[in-house]
Amino acid sequence: MKYTLILLSLFSLFLSACSKEVKIDIPGYEQQVVIDGSIETDAPPLVLLSKSNDIYSPTNLDAYLENFISGAIVTVSNGLTTVQLDEICTDNLPAGTEEIAAGIFGIPAAELANFHLCAYTSFNTDIWGQVGKTYNLTVTFDGKTYTSSTTILQSTPPVNMFYKLSGSFTDKGYSWVTLNDPPNQYDAYKLQYKRSGKPQFEDVWNPFFDDQFFDGKTFDFSFDDKTTYDDPNVPDNVKGYFNLGDTVILKLSKLDRSAYEFFEKKYNQLFNAGNPFSTPTNVPTNIKGGALGVWVGYSPAYDTLVCIP
User: Fold this and answer.
1) What one-character-per-residue DSSP string does the chain give?
2) CA angle 212–217–220, rounded 5-degree value
3) Is residue 207 domain-shared with residue 172, that is, in the same domain?
4) Is the entire prediction scored with pTM above 0.90?
5) Does residue 294 sit within a domain?
6) How far apart are CA 94 and CA 96, in angstroms?
7) Rounded to whole angstroms, what are the CA distances from 210 to 183, 219, 223, 246, 261?
8) How far, in Å, CA of 293 to CA of 282, rounded?
9) Which domain, by its residues, includes 92?
């Protein structure tokens, strides 16, 4: 017993001798401008401006609303035409645009007028998106200027869409897409869908993917109805399914590499949030001048599926 106590004491001293105080120098927080801008074929540019938040700052609705930026000068140029975008705010929306604004800001349409949230866009069709053109964005705010550039690529339409019943169900299943990826070139995609009659397209769970593993291949893939997971009227055992007879509209958009790298890292960070074993991810940006965010051009292709096997 005596020797056991001595050994335990020596072991404890050994462990304490091996310990070392580690000091981590965490850099101070510096607020930055965040740019969320996009332009797609036959549609106007749309730019949202906000300020970044400290990780320890409040995450309530008031904090979210206070971060949006108003009063900036935002221009878009396609090389031939340069247009200063108009600032349009939720408390003074053009009639008929409420549902679109609700989808942009994530606030119910009936409540939009209660807030002063602004986006930058233009009704001048000379600056609307066209395939093959490069669009240069310039944002000036608080004495600083931020720039970016994106190109609208040629779209790749899906070859086919079809519906498959799942398991033993006779009225529920998944929507499927056949894609023929162009060979010997880099391609990145964004996948969205909506049920017929709905105003807004929904992103699938992970809407962005590239052809790293299927360049030049033809393949099938499925997607589920994400909207059912938050619907209390849909029983748990049938969430994610499309019903027999549903009409589903697909939107498959192409985007350039720099924009894809932003979204790929962003979603990777979202999916791994809180996982202590995941690799830390820095989300890149294609904005120059010290701002965060992305300026992206989309070239969508559409297809419609009636959910009948």
Assistant:
1) -HHHHHHHHHHHHHHHHH-------PPPP---EEEEEEEEBTS--EEEEEE---TTS--SHHHHHHTB--S-EEEEE-SS-EEEPEEEEGGGPPTT-HHHHHHHHTS-GGGGGGS--EEEE---GGGSB-TT-EEEEEEEETTEEEEEEEE-PPP---SEEEEEE-TT-SSEEEEEEEEEPPTTS--EEEEEEEETT-SS-EEEEEEEEESTTTTT-EEEEEE--GGGGG-TTS-GGGTTPEETT-EEEEEEEEE-HHHHHHHHHHHHHHHHTT-TTSPP-PPP---BSS-EEEEEEEEEEEEEEE---
2) 100
3) yes
4) no
5) no
6) 6
7) 13, 13, 16, 28, 10
8) 12
9) 33-151
- The domain total for the chain is 2
Q: DSSP code of 236?
A: G
Last-in-domain residue among 151, 181, 204: 151
Mean pLDDT, 10 residues at a time, the chain of 309 residues: 52 54 65 95 95 75 78 96 93 78 76 83 94 98 97 97 96 98 97 90 95 97 95 95 97 97 90 65 91 98 97
Phi-psi category of residue 301: left, alpha or beta, with phi > 0 → left and psi -120 to 50 → alpha: beta
